[in-house]
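Minutes, project check-in
Item: structure for the 166-residue chain
Input as provided by the requester:
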Amino acid sequence: MDQDWEDRVTAAWAGFENCTEEEADDFRTVIDALVAELPDDSPLGPFERACAWDSTGHSDRAVPLYQEALARGLTGYRGRRAKIQLSSSLRNIGRAEEGVALLTPELHAPSDELDDAVRATLALCLSSLGRDREGLSLVLGALAAHLPRYQRSMANYARALVEPGG
């Protein structure tokens, strides 16, 4: 889409930060109006609508929209965001195993600023499945890179959590 549309979507989301629960319907109406400007087959439409439903506490409504956006070919940065957010929503509605299956390949995707979000969300999905050690390993591994000291130790501890006998 063009930059004007992107700017208006960004402004809508900036306004959402101050949105009360009572204003959630109005926010989704704004997003729906922006989506109405897109071509019918655009993957951005269901993605933005999914984000709006998800952010207003309706993971159940967001899941099929994220899936539609990905099925329509949403890729790149927004595609990765959709996978992270879909996995979180799947976990929220009791389908954490699907979230794990969706995010595990993202551990080997080209690195970007969403790497830690992938690991954090995957860790939550794993924890929901009773796989806390694997989840903790992912979180410690992600955290290690940001520590001013102890990076090597924390990375080693993270690996040890999932090694046999660890």
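Outcome recorded: The chain has nine helices and no strands.
No further action items on this chain.
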